Amino acid sequence: MFLTMKENVVIIGGGIAGMEAARQLLLLGYNPIVVEQKEQLGGHVGKWHRLFPDMSSAQDLVRRMEEDISEANIFLETKVNSINRLREGYQVMLSNGVNIACRAILIASGFKLFDATRKEEYGYGVYDHVITNADLEAWFNGNADPRIPHAPESVGFVHCVGSRDLKAGNSQCSKVCCMTAVKQAIEIKERFPSARVWCFYMDLRLFGKKYEDFYIGAQQDYAVQFVRGRISEVSEALGGQIQVKAEDTLTGKPLRVRLDLLVLMSGMSCNPEMTRLARMARLDIDSDGFLKSLDNIRSINESNRPGIFFAGACTGTKTVPETLAEARAAALDIHRYLQKGL
Ligand code: SF4
């Protein structure tokens, strides 16, 4: 099978960045071809339950986005095998045998959730009642999880797991996990109003519209307790509870709590697929390990290669609205590039 060169734009990654860019490119009259490794579109957002600060349904968002791109060519469970430069544009070879000639490629390969087993001190994969933010979202979405008690009376959230952590090889802030912790704490309180809920944080990064209100509401309306301090020890107590020792750095006092559930806020890390694509297309990698934009002010969607563009978390940690805005900007950049006939 050979798809023609006219108007094709290959989009690598079928998460929300790739989907939003595909929608815009369809509206602009192009033929977006979305290549996704997984068996479904939506990426991480497709597995999430509700989105802050509106508490809107992530599944609904992805469903609507899928409907919007129903006319696009979409290849699921498909990898890019190679990207070769042509005299004008590129030839992209897919693992399903399809070859696509195009003048523009959008990389929207997203991020990988930090593997919490690498932070051994928190006991993920070792203790029965330690889970990650992603595990909790799956449970909110109705997937059974034996690690989550039927009626937890005490739940803790640990911020910055694998982010802002030089030992873990990632000094970047993941941007979304403070708010995810606040959101998940509220969702836990909605389901189990009598549960005591703690958030253990180093700094709270609540920079977006309505984020601060959301955080204040978590304290005032849901009695979520925020403790500034690093956890020094996690262990399993008798009866399977999780014992957490921390120092409250605001009061200077040590703290010891027993929890029925400990949730680790795993951050965003580089997607290994992104590194593979960078090698294939000779793209620059930035000092943080993510793909390197031409610059970080005005050309964040542009790469060092002509006709190859970026959108979303392949260039760094992003919120959902930032990702969608960047995808729209990337579609416009691609349109401008193709109109110039370069
Ligand atoms: S958003 Fe919050 S929890 Fe996430 S890395 Fe940044 S400071 Fe840590």
Question: How would you describe this protein?
Answer:
- The chain is α/β, with parallel strands linked by helices.
- It has two domains: 2-110 and 271-339, FAD/NAD(P)-binding domain; 114-267, FAD/NAD(P)-binding domain.
- It has helices spanning 16-27, 58-68, 133-140, 177-191, 211-220, 272-281, 320-339, and strands spanning 2-3, 8-12, 31-35, 50-51, 56-57, 73-75, 80-85, 90-94, 99-102, 104-107, 111-113, 130-132, 154-161, 196-201, 225-228, 231-236, 242-248, 253-259, 261-266, 268-270, 308-310.
- Mean pLDDT is 95; it is low at 1-5.
- The structure holds iron/sulfur cluster (SF4).
- Residues 159-160, 163-164, 173-175, 177-178, 203, 205, 265, 267 line the site of iron/sulfur cluster.
Strand order within the widest sheet? 6-3-2-10-21
Fraction of residues in H or I helices: 25-40%
Q: What is the number of E strands?
A: 21
Total domains, how many? 2
The helix-and-strand class reads alpha/beta
CATH superfamily of the largest domain: FAD/NAD(P)-binding domain
Name given to the CATH architecture of the largest domain: 3-Layer(bba) Sandwich
**Beta-strand content bin:** 25-35%
Q: Compute the CA-based radius of gyration.
A: 22 Å
Number of helices: 7
Order of helices and strands: EEHEEEHEEEEEEEHEHEHEEEEEEHEH
In this entry the ligands are: iron/sulfur cluster
Which SSEs are present, and which pair or pack?
Layout: E1 2-3, E2 8-12, H1 16-27, E3 31-35, E4 50-51, E5 56-57, H2 58-68, E6 73-75, E7 80-85, E8 90-94, E9 99-102, E10 104-107, E11 111-113, E12 130-132, H3 133-140, E13 154-161, H4 177-191, E14 196-201, H5 211-220, E15 225-228, E16 231-236, E17 242-248, E18 253-259, E19 261-266, E20 268-270, H6 272-281, E21 308-310, H7 320-339
Parallel strand pairs: 1-9, 2-3, 2-10, 3-6, 10-21, 12-19, 13-14, 13-19, 14-15
Antiparallel strand pairs: 4-5, 7-8, 8-9, 11-20, 16-17, 17-18
Helix pairs in contact: 1-2, 1-7, 4-5
